[in-house]
Amino acid sequence: MSTTENTVAPQQEIIVTGFGGQGIVLAGRIIGMAASLGDNKESTLTQAYGPESRGGACNAQVIISDRPIHYPYVKTPHILVAMSQAGYDKFAELLTKDSILLTDQDLVPTTSAPCPHYEVPATRMAEGLGHKMMANIIMIGFFTAITGAISKKAAQDTVLQSVPKGSEEKNTKAFNKGFDYGVSTLKGKEKRAAGKTGAIAS
Amino acid sequence: MMQPNKSATTMNRPNKIILFLCNWGPHAAFLSLQDEKRDIPEEVLMVRVPCTGRVDRSLLLKAFAMGADGVALVGCSPGTCRYGSGTLIASRNTQDTSKILDLMGIGQERLRFATFLPEQADDLLDFLHVFLNDIKKMGPTTITTSPTGPAPSDQRALPREDVAALIAKYDIHACQDCGKCSSACPLALVGKPFSARGIASAVINNDLYKSDVEENVWSCLTCGLCYERCPSAVNFPDFIKELRHLYRKNTIQGEEAHGGFLHSLMRSMASRDMTPNRWRNLPEDLQIDQESPVLFYGGCAPYFDIFFGKHLDVHTEKILFDGIRLLNFFDVHPRLLGDERCCGHDLLWSGEQKHFGQVARLNVERLNSLGITTMITTCPECYMTFKTTYPSQGLQLNFEVVHLYDFLEQEIDRGAVQFSALDQVITFQDSCRLCRLESRAELPRQLLNRLQPTRFSEMRESGNAAMCCGNTAWTGCDAFSKAMQVKRLQQARETGADLLITSCPKCQIHLRCAMQDPFRGDELQMEMLDLTSVIVKTIQWK
Ligand code: SF4
Ligand code: SF4
Ligand code: SF4
Fold first, then answer.
1. Do B536 and A185 touch (CB under 8 A)?
2. Would you say residue B104 lies in a domain?
3. What Rg value do the Cα atoms of chain B yield, rounded?
4. How many C-beta atoms surround the C-beta of residue B28 within 10 A?
């Protein structure tokens, strides 16, 4: 299967954005920690605080690199993860054709990205699991499968360390759900590209 | 494919050819041979029949099932049939049965149809010698026949200990005579003089040999609706299954539909040396990997298609192909078993525990030797039989048995798959095996709810309360089965649906059968498709 894993650049600049209460900063922290503690890379995390964290737009900026990082702010995101329309609108103009855009499809209805765009109904899936709050963990799973920026094991381990005691099982389930959705999405893309959309040979 | 060693018993017996000979034209020829003391081979056993057109497919197959190595159907030359259509019908019956023999791996050359005029005695003799020669080259068939035990001196006296054991096992004394079973039983509800409770009391009162009780025991659909409702949890389907076994053991014959054709077929599957010859007409687009750890198990659909194809326009083998297509869609390229036998479901449920046991042991031996991890099937009967019945009889399989719907639900739930719009109103016929006996009513519905039809309307009785398609195990089909099917189809039409989705190949066959009623015209007509085929049509990657 062709995940984008083998094409991971030496330095990945990532923006996770959404609104307060979605666990955006936690998502950014898990991605960064997974890269540094799990995958033994360098990583930095900067986050936007202030009124934003109470419901307005909010974001976390993560840089993952094979070398020491000197400047921790993202200028051109390689990956934009948007979990709200406002968040997307704010950063959309930074995207280039080489970026990857990941969105929660129900929360970011309007996009026009110059780059590959992958959608997941993370919040809806979280509701399906009975915990709307875990949309961010589903998104991390999706992110891991699609971008390959962090390894699955590192991501899973970090999720387990970062969530409240007693909720490990639920969160692992959420992570896997997002991850599977990502794998499936890539597979679907590959099939469509090969002209095999349906199950009946045309 | 592994060719099992032929066991000594089948190799050494003398050849036997059954000659069904029409009374009119060719019998005269045969008589001249006898008068002139010509060398009619002693292997040829002649059965004189009034017309070859009356020797139906079940008789032809039964001859093989009872030990014939070759069967010749010899009638009058075209145009000379005394009844007009005999020759034509006989040749059609021969064709169908040949195809089945071929699938069973017995060889279609073992069945021949020929016609002779009264004066063609020499030609008839030649024909018999050539046929015998060919049969000798092929050797005996691989069907082993099991001798039937001597009839008990008094058939009425079913062994009391056996009956008592049955009563104890199913706790029949716990029956409160409340009648809930009868008020749920679809047969009783269409007006058949039938009572589940009545069977229960007959067991207790030693009335099992009474003809009306016997008739009831063979009529029960083992559909499990009564078990759902019974406050004392009397497991009627299982109880009836064992009662039938008890009957058979005491040489009380079952009420086999279609002259016992399908039962002969299934009994033959109990022969160790038989090597069926399946999957040769696989559509080219299907991807198979004979090294795969995942086996796709088809079941009996292709036999049904040959047997019912002409009258009922059934295409149940397509369901199997569509099942494989769906596995392929999700990148599973399954393995297929060329010598796949039947699972034995219908034998077991029509009281043939002995033949079932033989088929099951052969299956376990063969399947366990494959080194597979998973068997996937779309047939609810195969699913239940392998998954639940085999282990319950102490037959352990060394792999997991998975229903295709479970596989699909798991894969589709990962996401990135969607369904194109289905421009029809749909309704759904539950399979009694999957829905009640395996308690999986929710499983097909998870998939149905993912489809994008104009509307999905359940029938008045659905899920655990669903009425069955009117027959199980090809046993006890009568006018009341038909009445049930008519009622069911009316319920389906009542929903406003224009597509009836099924989940068992047999529901397709039995319901299609009821649609043939010429007096009802279009009143019962409805498009039917298996859920697997509907999914194949509409599933797509996002
Ligand atoms: S199993 Fe079905 S047909 Fe048999 S008695 Fe019960 S409800 Fe009636
Ligand atoms: S429902 Fe059960 S308890 Fe009631 S009459 Fe039927 S078998 Fe007996
Ligand atoms: S309903 Fe029709 S196809 Fe089914 S067993 Fe009866 S006669 Fe045969």
1. no
2. yes
3. 25
4. 17
Selection from B72, B54, B85 nearest residue B115 by Cα: B72
Distance from CA of B323 to the nearest CA of A (A): 10
- All structural domains of chain A, each given as residue ranges with its CATH number in brackets, are 11-196 (3.40.920.10)
Interface of B with A in 384-413 (CB under 8 A): 411
Nearest to B540 by CA among B450, B454, B428: B450
Q: Ligand 2 pocket: which residues have CB below 6 Å?
A: B 175-181, 196-197, 200, 226, 229-232, 234
Q: What is the CATH number of the domain that holds B286?
A: 3.40.50
**B293-306: burial string, b at 16+ Cβ within 10 Å, e else:** ebbbbbbbbbbbbb
pLDDT at B9: 46
**Tens digit of pLDDT for each residue in B255-300?**
889 888 898 889 889 888 889 999 999 999 999 999 999 999 999 9
What is the domain range of residue B317? 273-407
Q: Within this chain, do residues B240 and B297 fall inside the same structural domain, yes or no?
A: no
Q: How far is CA A111 from CA A14, A92, B347, B366, B425, in A?
A: 18, 8, 61, 56, 35
Lowest mean pLDDT among A49-63, B103-117, B189-203, B327-341: A49-63
Quickly state the pLDDT bin for A106 (edges 50, 70, 90): very high
Asked, for residue B7, whether it belongs to a domain, the answer is no
Q: For residues B368 and B416, state if they share a domain.
A: no
Tokens of B90: 């006989």
Element (H, E) at B48: strand B44-49
Q: How many domains does chain B have?
A: 4
Contact B414 A120 (CB under 8 A): no
Dump pLDDT digits (tens) for B509-539.
999 999 988 888 788 999 999 999 999 999 9
Task: Suggest the residue from A102, A129, A200, A202 to mutate for an interface test with chain B (most B CBs closer than 10 A).
Answer: A200
- Tell me the pTM: 0.84
Q: Please name the member of B328, B416, B539 whose beta carbon is closest to the beta carbon of A184.
A: B416
Is residue A91 within 8 A of residue A67, CB to CB? The reply is no
Alpha carbon distance, N-terminus to C-terminus of chain B: 40
**CA B222 – CA B468 distance, rounded (Å):** 10
**Given an 8 Å threshold on Cβ–Cβ distance, is B329 in contact with A199?**
yes
- How many Å lie between the centroid of ligand 3 and the Cα of residue B221? 12
Name residue, tokens 């030649």: B126
